[in-house]
Amino acid sequence: MDTPLLNFVGAVGIGLVIGIVGGFVLRGRSSTALWMSPVLAIVGALVASGLAAMFGDRRDYGYKEIALQVVLAAVGVALAYVLSGRGASTPSATGTTP
């Protein structure tokens, strides 16, 4: 298998797994977390692959790139958590309901 293709498939796989787990963890907070967490985690992992290539990755799929993908996928899940919290319907401070 070609190494850049392996990087892409690995990034999508890592992002999908972390995003699905994060989506189920955040499921009680918002229903959008079920689809937003995997999407943002995959985007984070793909950005990690791009950054690794940009900063001189020798195109072998090593532990440094995997670690960067995991971290940025987790950042994507955290971003989904923040975004789903802003959209949650809570009573406003003025006492009126939305």
Give me the secondary-structure topology.
Layout: H1 3-25, H2 33-54, H3 63-86
Helix pairs in contact: 1-2, 1-3, 2-3
Largest sheet: none
- Outline: elongated
Helix fraction bin: over 70%
SSE topology string: HHH
Number of domains: 1
Distance between the termini: 54 Å
Radius of gyration: 17 Å
Derived structural class: mainly alpha
**What is the strand tally?**
0
Total of DSSP H or I helical runs spanning 4+ residues: 3
Question: What is the percentage of strand-forming residues?
Answer: under 5%
Mean pLDDT: 78
Low-confidence parts lasting 5 or more residues at pLDDT below 50? none
How would you describe the overall organization of this protein?
- The chain is an all-alpha fold.
- The chain has one domain (3-86).
- The chain contains three helices and no strands.
- Helix 1 (3-25) packs parallel to helix 3.
- The longest helix has 24 residues, at 63-86.
What's the short story on this structure?
This protein has 98 residues and is mainly α. It has one domain. The protein has helices at residues 3-25, 33-54, 63-86.
Descriptive terms for the model:
single chain; 98 residues; mainly alpha; 70% helix
